[in-house]
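seq as requested:
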Amino acid sequence: MNMKYRFHWIAALFLVLAGCKPAPSSTAVIVLPHEPSNGTLQKYWQVPAFELIDQDGKSFNSGGMLGKVWVVDFFYTTCPGPCPALTSRLSELHKALSSESRVAFLSISSDPEKDKPEVLQKYALKFGADKRWSFLTGPVDAVFSLANHGFKLSLTRSENPAEPVTHSTRLVLVDANGWVRGFFEGVGEESAEAGKRLEEAIRSVLKE
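struct tokens:
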């Protein structure tokens, strides 16, 4: 990897690990670099296997994602800040790719103690989710470990009862073999452009 791409990779990873508030507009689009040799998206690391509970109260095993290209975000239903905008951005992408049966979406609650399956089910209906879009909850420790270590997205507890957690607003692209392929900002002034780039990246990965 030459120095130019190494610098952009390090800068992007730093922003991914930063706090949960939307990044300034100058850094709102977080897209990890393309391979300079052939123009394809890089493979960064494989997401560890995990098991949570979906909005229907059923066990969700990440093994079921093999063969699918998926987009992941962390949110919570009572979030007073960026979460509704983040889920709306994902909803737009969900609609734009409605004919792609191999594309799936995972929204993982960062406040799982409150976001029980019945709560997530109502939230999913509000955003028109179909069977391709799972809203997940589970043990607190498992969710925090998955965010911080599995997806390398910042998720921390807050002392503010109105905002019990602080979480990243990035969308993560994962390929059919479970490899992380890039990060895209989900809220902020430039999130619409990031959404377009994410859609292009999804279509590219589908062709692999």
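The radius of gyration is 16 Å.
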